[in-house]
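Incident log, structure service

09:12 report received: a user says their structure output differs between two submissions of the same chain.
09:20 pulled the input from the user's history:
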Amino acid sequence: MKSIIPNFLTSLNLFCGCIAVLSFLNHYYFTGILLVLLSATADFFDGFVARLMNVQSELGKELDSLADMISFGFVPGTLIYVAFLNNSSFSSFAELLENQYYLPFIGFIITVFSGVRLAKFNIDKRQSQSFIGLPTPANTLFFLTIPLTWVYGEENEFVNEMINNNYILTLLTLLFSFLLIAELPLIALKFNGFNLKNNRYRYLLISSGIVFVILFGHLSIPLILVSYICISCLEHFLTKAKT
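09:34 re-ran on a clean worker, output below:
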């Protein structure tokens, strides 16, 4: 019976991801943002609760990957698709096909590489306590900057120019597709208790993220991602130096 709790959280992640896709496609950006954040929260706590209650299972593992494929694979692809669509003179999928304008479909390269990343994770024994390659939730949170800017960032001309530039959107799509499957060691936010010594890099990441959010608001997400990669590399090299 205890396994119902983490599996419920994973199912909540999946449900919110599905509705987030519909929200972004229909330009309900604020609703989509909230749903993605709820998905990320459920995704964090399902594993934490499973470890805490000692109810980890193969079913939970597979369900988690399927949920992540939607919430953190299909959702970012949809976000990039909508960004390209907004930058065009077309307003619907039908118009894209009628005019043979296929550029917005580039966004779903992220979805494909997210699927590869999740499949690799399931069979890679090195990723039990850390990640190799950018986790799909972190990737999705980066691209969440786009709808956050649509909702809150009208006054920031630089950021608006970035997301209105198809070349930059294409470059970011290809770059983050690569990062998803790159041999890059990164911290997993898998807390085994709350011991400071065993989780110091995780606490450093969380505290720096809070500072960035306070200082930069929604624009803190790219900074948090950069600090995530830097702190992860620091942990990797210091741990390797000790051994």
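09:41 both user submissions now match this output. Likely a transient worker issue. Closing.
09:42 reviewer note: Strands lie at 130-132, 185-187. Residues 58-86 form the longest helix (29 residues).
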